[in-house]
Amino acid sequence: MTVLFLNSSSDRYGSSRILIEVVKTYKEAGLTPVVVMSEPGPLETHFLELGIAVKIQNLGILRRKYVTFSGILNRLRKNYQAYKFLDKLHREYKFELVYSNTLAVLVGAQWAKWNKLPHVWHIHEILLGPPPLIKLLGRLLDRTTPSPIVVSKAVGEHWKDRLEKSKPTIIHNGIPYDEFLRKEENNPLDLGIGADKIIITMVGRINPGKGQLFFLELAKRITATYPQCHFLLVGDPFPGYESIEAEIQDFISKNRLEDCVTNLGFREDISSILKMTDVFMLPSILPDSLPTVILEAMAASCPVVATLSGGASEMVLEGQTGYLIPINDLEQGVNALIKLILNPELRDNFGEAGRQYVLEHFSLESFRENIKNHLWQQLKRN
């Protein structure tokens, strides 16, 4: 049985990392995966190394920047070309199931419907608008996907009231934790930051919702009083959001934060960065479904400060593994960080509790078992 997987990007950030585990699970269950993505990249290389077929075709991925008249025309044209490509691929592979990773991939659902194939949609997003797009996605889900996977209760609650037929299934993310659990390497990462510094780290793809500029506002406030702190930014921009990266650099320069803020850009060595991190922060300013990087930080024994922006409240235990703060609340963000800056024992206690919690409640084994059970249920429907 051959399964067509459609992915919204070729990077190896959160949703793509989850796709890797889903593809592995399907393959171990005896299915043959074929993955299609819009451009070459690290994810393509990884799948090829695993012996999995990968095809490159522009899938007309939906991004905020395309929600304009000209952008929609562009996406319609790209989706039409993608339909033709999938038709050709289907003649070669004779797919029996279609799996779309993230709502940014629209082409797979309708293509599966036209070809009378079962469709699985793995939803990682909480979308606030525009209303016509939300309505379109709801109708498409109802027509094509009886049981979409949602990555958190927050995502399920968001979409449940917008669906009439589809019944979301909550499957919390799980990832391999081995590299985050290993003790510090003999040669720790050298970023030119003093060994006496308290390192506060944010990891996330640069886009309008991740909150990098809010993170820098916190850095400005904290370092003015606590010069022993150093803030690390990790992540590069989604294509089209390079202007936000320029704003980040401009903020650092204008506020003379070069000595207390380091912008590392894209990095492969996240586990090494987290091992030298004292406090992890994810300051998302738009709903964030279930950020995989919080799981990584907790596995690495980092106390977490995160905004109440979606799935974070299902991962971080308030006052036990970290702190949850309102979106864009500078005062509460500063207060939460100060508690951890001034109390090394609290950092250690939160970090250890977080590690235990993530291994018990977000294990890779549980994730794979849930994905496998969902797969069999979809096949029984057909």
Describe this structure in words.
With 382 residues, the chain is an alpha/beta fold. Helix content is 45%, strand content 15%. The protein contains 14 helices and 13 strands. The chain has a seven-stranded parallel sheet with strand order 3-2-1-4-5-6-7. Helix 1 crosses helix 14 and helix 11 packs across helix 13. The protein is globular. The two termini are 13 Å apart.
Series of secondary-structure elements, N-terminal to C-terminal: EHEHEHEHEHEHEHEHEHEHEHEEHHH
Q: Output the number of helix runs.
A: 14
Largest sheet: 7 strands, parallel
Please count the beta strands (DSSP E, at least 2 residues each). 13
Can you list the strand order of the major beta sheet? 3-2-1-4-5-6-7
Look at the helices and sheets and give the structural class.
Answer: alpha/beta
Strand proportion: 15-25%
CA distance, first residue to last residue: 13 Å
Layout of helices and strands:
Blueprint (H helix, E strand, L loop, with lengths): L1 E6 L6 H15 L3 E6 L4 H8 L3 E4 L12 H25 L3 E5 L5 H8 L4 E5 L7 H14 L4 E2 L2 H8 L8 E2 L7 H4 L16 E6 L8 H14 L3 E6 L7 H13 L6 E5 L4 H6 L3 E4 L9 H8 L4 E4 L14 E4 L4 H12 L2 H18 L2 H18 L1
Parallel strand pairs: 1-2, 1-4, 2-3, 4-5, 5-6, 6-7, 8-9, 8-11, 9-10, 11-12, 12-13
Helix pairs in contact: 1-14, 4-5, 8-12, 11-13
Salient structural properties:
alpha/beta; 13 strands; 6-stranded parallel beta sheet; 14 helices; 382 residues
Produce a short descriptive summary:
The protein is α/β, with parallel strands linked by helices. The protein is 45% helix and 15% strand. The protein has helices spanning 14-28, 42-49, 69-93, 107-114, 131-144, 153-160, 178-181, 212-225, 242-254, 270-275, 292-299, 330-341, 344-361, 364-381, and strands at 2-7, 32-37, 53-56, 97-101, 119-123, 149-150, 169-170, 198-203, 229-234, 261-265, 279-282, 304-307, 322-325.
